[in-house]
Amino acid sequence: MSTGSAAPQAAPARGDSIDDLLARVRGGHRPDVDETDRLLHAPLDVLSRAAAQLRDEGLARAGRPGVITYSRKVFVPLTTLCRDRCHYCIFVDTPGQLALLRKPAYMSPEQVLTVVRQGQALGCKEALLTLGDRPEERWPEARAWLDEHGFASTIDYVAHIARLITAETGMLVHANPGVMHPDELATLRPVAPSMGMMLETTSRRLYEEPGQVHFGSPDKDPDLRLRVIDDAGAAGIPFTTGILVGIGETVRDRAESLIALRDLDDRHGHVQEVIVQNFRAKPRTAMQGAPDADMHEYLATVAVARLVFGPDMRVQVPPNLSDPRELGLLIGAGIDDWGGVSPLTADHVNPERPWPHIDDLAAQTAAHGFALRERLTAHPEYVNDAATWIDPALHAPVRALADATGLAADLIPGTARPATGGDSAMGGQSGAEASSAPRISSAPSGAAAALAPDPGVRRLAESAAADPLALDDADWTRLLHATGAELDALTAAADDARRYTVGEPVTLVQNRNLTSTGFRRTGRTGAGEFDLADAEAIAADATDLGATEICIQGALPAEEDPSSYLDLVRAVKRGAPGIHVHAFRPFDVRDLADRGGLGLKGALAAMKEAGVDTVPGTGVKVLSERVRGLVAPADLEIERWVEGITAAHRAGFRSTSVLFYGHVETAAERIAHLRTLRGIQAETNGFAEFVPIPLPGGEVPLVAGRSALDEHRAMVAVSRLLLSGAIAHVQIPWTRVGREATAVLLRSGGDDLGGTLYDGRVLPDTGIEQGLELPVKDAERLARSLMRPFRLRTTDYGVERARVVSA
User: How far apart are the first and last CA of the chain?
Assistant: First the structure.
């Protein structure tokens, strides 16, 4: 809890060197601003060692040595309207932008619960409510929305939504609505066991000087923000705050900011964690050309935060804002918390920086000697002293989710509810009392609202968004057959599901195809053929063009030795040592397993050793033997395809997944296919994306007379809804539908464009989709036309590689 609560040890004699100062800090001395400034200029390795030692002492004292914590959350962007104008922010929209995006001024309760319930099913216990500051004081549209729905203010609506979330799901709310007055803090305390607001910096220059990051943003007045944090302490609220590094502040500003926060915590003991966040430049902002926070300075600030606050403070860094290979340096600098990480929703404030997979974060943490444990939105010290820190209305919901130590209980995902159940979770309220606040009905947005579709289809779509497993096959079939206004309502619901889970970015990987069917060990004799030396040159050329992935698929000719699958991967890695190899369908893997005498398990192990990173989940049309027999009898049998992709996942490979549609399959077979993929994902969590692909030459609509575009819209929307909460990304196959239709489908639930499919300058004919390139600039232009951000991704939806510094 508060560092001020620990009894200081006898301090060593005062000296002038950094070593002397660090020795005094380790002995219990609390540095002042001048000393903190000196520490921020000290050698990083010395700082990190001292900070890590203090962290370890604090964790041992807390009864959880060697444990780094995180909160499993859903991120709910309640409104993106804001009265401030921060120069680095991409979170906010104007009312005009909302109209172009077909996005509501505020999320409705139904939209919020749709996201929260999906998160609950994935084991989330925290709902983070983030929003712009007091939008009604700048935008008439926000004031009108609040008036129409019966709310006095945005904070009033936040309180209603927080109460609803816990009453309906048992999840706990962390409220992050910006600047709050004492009466607003009091309003939120009974519905949110913790709250937060970043101080960011005490620099008045950044607030008062034209052109600086906070100029023109009334809620970024440092004195105002310090007063809010002080008021939160006086109100007994566990509070999260912190500083931003790299927004134009000086080193002295950082020192003053840390000491200002420590002084407030000394007064109240309410600062439950201090976030040290690094600035990352974002496109379409005034600071888009500014450099990211210097990594050495960032690590020094993290370490000094630990030294300033001492062993008992939780020091947090956001793991998605650093390269995965830098996480060990942050652990070494004394952090003990990763903050909220979501298995479902994007970081809507930093949409260009996806969350790490929680399993990967646990592995990274373990690799540096620590165990990852889940906590609640309020840290254990505050949970264990609930009588002091948690409003009585929340005691039951908090107890229901906490274990005996105050960390998160190990519950079965989707079952976390307060012990008393139902609406009584909110301090004994009856259902009528919990429902007394204004109610808001959902309505379809955009064209769907104008055309007033059959409410039955709209309700089905909303039910699908809230709980995909609640619909039966007949319901899904009805949605697949939607036309006209019903189809508009369906795609609007799917696009909302996309927006509030994976977020707004349109993503693309820079890649090149290499069709292994054309491999000839003895050398090229015709078009589309290549040998090992060619593969090496192709990979090197692709890297020069910017590609981060080579996709290799296709069965080798029967006359080629099956070991050539592995030799081909090794050749690519020689030509481009850092490139990601996405290689071999279940059909190809089975060929290696059978002809190579390795067996399935042995083939997968050999692929990993050779350098394969992920595998394509292609080589199947529809998971139906009837359809396979009619359309692609040479494909792998369905049972063997399922066995192969499941084995690949269990061997540590992530994969894509696909459905080819528009030929002889029925709606029921499409639904069965999607359900099977969802079932596999529940077992293995191995699918990174789903791609609904129209079969070339098929174009057989489910509904007679329905246009090809509407057929694609229905398929993309149903895919998004049925797979939501299981397979995060829906890729639009632009090579099959064309760029104009792709833009429409990105508004029907899609979020990804696949790959650039560079032909390259070396043997371009060896890629199966030669002549179909999507240059990065064209993809950026497409995203811009939709008013959505664009992001280059890695094959597994991470951020492209960044530089790494050493301590």
Answer: 29
Closest to 351 measured CA to CA, from 693, 805, 789, 796: 789
Token pair listed for 66? 């060697």
Quote the CA–CA distance of 468 and 720 in Å, as a whole number: 10
CA atoms within 13 A on the CB side of 174: 26
**How high is the pLDDT of residue 801?**
57
- Contact predicate 558/528, CB 8 Å: no
750 CB-near residues (< 8 Å, 6+ apart): 498, 716, 720, 730, 731, 732, 742
Task: Output DSSP code: residue 471.
Answer: S
The total number of residues shown for the chain amounts to: 807
CA distance 653 to 212: 46
Tell which residue, 730, 76, 112, 101, has the closest CA to residue 465: 112
Half-sphere exposure of 405 (CA within 13 A, CB side): 14
Q: List all residues 6 or more positions away from 460 whose beta carbon is below 8 Å from its beta carbon.
A: 471, 475, 478, 479
Give the list of residues 6+ apart from residue 417 with CB closer than 8 angstroms, or none: 169, 170, 400, 425
pLDDT greater at residue 459 or residue 681: 681
Question: What SS3 class is residue 763?
Answer: coil
Q: What is the layout of strands, in order, in the sheet containing 790-792?
A: 752-755, 506-509, 790-792
On the CB side of 585, CA atoms within 13 Å amount to 20
Distances (CA, A) of 212 to 246, 247, 249, 280, 324: 12, 9, 10, 16, 31
Q: Quickly state the pLDDT bin for 439 (edges 50, 70, 90).
A: very low
**How many angstroms separate the CA atoms of 535 and 569, rounded?**
9
The two three-digit tokens of residue 53, written as one number = 């030692």
Q: Hey, what are 618's tokens?
A: 């292609």
Tokens standing for residue 139: 């935008």
Contacts of 200 (CB under 8 A, 6+ apart): 214, 220, 222, 225, 243, 244, 247, 257
Q: Which of 212-216, 404-408, 742-746, 801-805 has the lowest mean pLDDT?
A: 801-805
Name, in order, each residue with C-beta under 8 angstroms of 712's C-beta and a sequence gap of 6 or more.
692, 694, 737, 741, 744, 745, 748
C-alpha distance from residue 584 to each of 136, 240, 619 (Å): 54, 47, 9
Contacts of residue 242, Cβ cutoff 8 Å, sequence gap at least 6: 198, 199, 261, 273, 274, 275, 276, 277, 316
**Distance between CA atoms of residues 612 and 604, nearest Å:** 9
- Which residues 6+ apart lie within 8 Å of 60 measured at CB? none
Q: How confident is the model at residue 6 (pLDDT cuts 50, 70, 90)?
A: very low
SS3 call for 552: strand
Q: What pLDDT, in 10s, does the model give residues 459-511?
A: 899 899 988 999 999 999 999 999 999 999 999 999 999 999 999 999 999 99
| pLDDT tens-digit series, residues 346-364 | 999 999 899 999 999 999 9
Cα dist. 234→1, 186, 270, 273 in Å? 15, 10, 9, 17
Q: What angle do CA 322, 327, 330 make, to 5 degrees?
A: 100
3-class secondary structure, 673: helix
Q: In the structure encoding, which two tokens stand for residue 105, read together?
A: 């001024």
The most distant pair of C-alpha atoms in the chain lies apart, rounded to whole Å, by 88
